[in-house]
Amino acid sequence: MSEPHEPIIRFDHASFGFPGVLALQDISLSINAGEFVGVIGPNGSGKTTLCKAVLGLMAPVQGHLHIFDCACDELRCHHRAKIGYLPQKGVVDRNFPVTVLETVMMGRYGALGLFKRASGRDREIAREALAHVGMEAHRSTALGHLSGGQQQRVFIARALAQQPKVLLLDEPTTGLDITTQHNVIELVEHLHEELGLTVLLITHDINMIRSRVDRLVLLKTRLFAAGPPEDVLKPEILREVYGKDLVITEKDLVIVEDYHHHH
Amino acid sequence: MELIELFSYDFMQRSLLAAALVGGLCSVIGVFVVLRGLAFVGAGTAHAAFAGVTLGYLMGWPPLLLAILFGLATVWITGWVEERGNMKLDVSIGILYTTTMALAILFIGLMKTYNAEVYGYLFGNVLSVTTEELRMIGGLSILVLGTIMLFSKELYFIAFDQEMAEASGVPARRIFFLLLTLVALTVVVSLKTVGAILVFAMVLIPASTAYQLTHSLSTLTWYSIIIGVICSSGGVLLSAVWDIPSGPAIVLLSTLIFFLSVLLSPKRLRQALPAN
Fold first, then answer.
1. pLDDT tens-place string over residues B125-157
2. What is the pLDDT of residue B274?
3. Which of B211, B269, B260, B244 is nearest to B36 (CA)?
4. What is the C-alpha separation between A38 and A206, in angstroms, rounded?
5. Structural element, H or E, at residue B100
6. Residue A84's beta-bridge partner residues?
């Protein structure tokens, strides 16, 4: 187990992309064990690239990235299994023949490794993961029959079934109604506290997470700010990153008009 | 011919066994092909394998070996193109599909004499399967089915979501190429039975039929095998009783069952209700 406050993800002057077309440039950032970090930034700011980098799917073109004391391009499969990942919500084919429990069991597959069959213990872990997200009663339901919010819970359970140290969530609330968005974020907060997970949450919705995270990371190709929300969410910093898309209301609520997410 | 009398013939026993093996094998691999969206890849592979057969007969080399080589080359090129993502999959397959078919027609043209065996691979004739071919079908079936069983959890995962599989620690790209290799081997095993033109129906139809009937991956696989074995052996019996070609008998029987499953699908009946 990693001790609290020990860095488990460390970017050291790392750049990602192709030389000349860098998606992320000169990032230096440490994420400590047990932290809840929100990653914000406008569209095309490199949020998803950061996500791929942490998953070990993209090595830095310059600088270094260490995850669990392992250089990122050496990240092996069993290390990947320690990062539970919730991808940006795609459309699940309503008819895809997979049950909720079968979906969550897939979270065990990477951790198990090749040639090993899932055992009763693995099914138990999958059921516990479903219990954590409050979906145990639906385990035999077809995934396609669930609502969007319920599907997100199932995918979070799949990530938990990996028994991860880090939970990496890429825009977990996109495409959900407001109430469901709050429920999903509350669930993530609850998992962070109850299971002591390090959480890295990527979102365009600053208001949703500002009161819940330990630190915010503001990206726009470069790292503009990182620190407690009150230090990062300053009008002068935000205006520099978001420009005219930024609206600040009387209640000091920061609203970033993100047109790409409101079709 | 009486049905009972049919079973007493050696050739009939061989054909039924070959059809059941091929039917079972195709319907298992079909589950992953349908879920991963590789239908067109399989159809292209069948034609590439046929080009290998024609080259074999032209040069006097072992036709099935060349069929395997052509099939593997096609799926690997396809997989590589998809991975690089710089060309749409249907475009690359379309080009390979027609190129290999052109090669097959060229090789047949160069043969000068009519060769009935070559056409056997194009249209398939399970009733003429020899004991030696049956052994080959049996051996390759064990190899392919054994590999699928060994890697089933990874194969299901990449069929559902390959990127997610990769991110959670499954060697997804290698498993994808393994799946493509298994598709090529399955196609070659089945060439003699249903022929290059129809083989892919045996891969697609049982899994697609099962898809209509269940919401569970494991149930889907079992339904697909049962449907595949019943359709292929049923087709052989129909072809013997009515004296019609075996390939079309198998495929048309499968198609009939597919349409019935669409009509009676619990999923489609449910879709008429509002979503919850």
1. 888 888 988 998 999 999 999 999 999 999 999
2. 46
3. B211
4. 9
5. helix B89-110
6. A167
CB contact at 8 A, A7 and A27:
no
A144 to chain B, any CB pair closer than 8 A? The answer is: yes
Nearest-CA residue of chain A relative to B171? A77
Question: For A180-206, what is each residue's pLDDT tens digit?
Answer: 999 999 999 999 999 999 999 999 888
Asked if B217 lies within 8 A of A94 by C-beta distance, the reply is: no
Cβ–Cβ < 8 Å for B64, B137: no
| Residues A139, A153: Cα–Cα separation, whole Å | 12
Q: How far apart are the first and last CA of chain B?
A: 54
Mutate to test the interface with A, among B215, B219, B270, B273 (most CBs of A within 10 A): B215
Contact residues on chain A for B218, CB-CB shorter than 8 A: 102
**pLDDT higher than 70, residue A260:** no
Q: Residues A113-169: pLDDT tens digits?
A: 888 889 999 999 999 999 999 999 999 999 988 998 999 999 999 999 999 999 999
Q: In this predicted complex, what is the ipTM?
A: 0.85
Residue-wise pLDDT tens digits, B204-221:
999 999 999 999 999 999
Q: What is the pLDDT of residue A73?
A: 67
Give B52-91 pLDDT, tens digit per residue.
Answer: 999 999 999 999 899 999 999 999 998 888 888 777 778 8
Query: What homologous superfamily is domain B3-263 in, according to CATH?
Result: ABC transporter involved in vitamin B12 uptake, BtuC (1.10.3470.10)
CA–chain centroid gap for A257, Å, is: 22
Q: Quick check: A105 and A122 in contact, CB under 8 A?
A: yes
- Structure tokens given for A204: 């365009």
CB A106 within 8 A of CB B193: no
| SS3 state at B52 | helix
Confidence band (pLDDT; 50, 70, 90) for A252? Answer: low
Q: Cβ separation of B166 and A57 shorter than 8 Å?
A: yes
pLDDT at residue A58 tops 90? no
Domain spans of chain B, in order of start: 3-263
Looking at this protein, which amino acid is placed at residue B93?
Answer: I
Do A80 and B169 lie within an 8 Å CB cutoff?
yes
A54 to chain B: nearest residue by CA? B167
* Least CB–CB distance from B157: residue in A79, A106, A117: A106
> Under a CB-based contact definition with an 8 Å cutoff, are residues B116 and B147 in contact?
no
Degrees, nearest 5: CA angle A78-A174-A7: 40
CA distance B83 to B99: 21
Give B160 to chain A, closest Cα distance, Å.
8
What is the residue-averaged pLDDT of chain A? 87
Nearest chain A residue to B36 by CA distance is A96
Torsion angle of C-alpha atoms B74, B76, B79, B84, degrees rounded to 10: -110
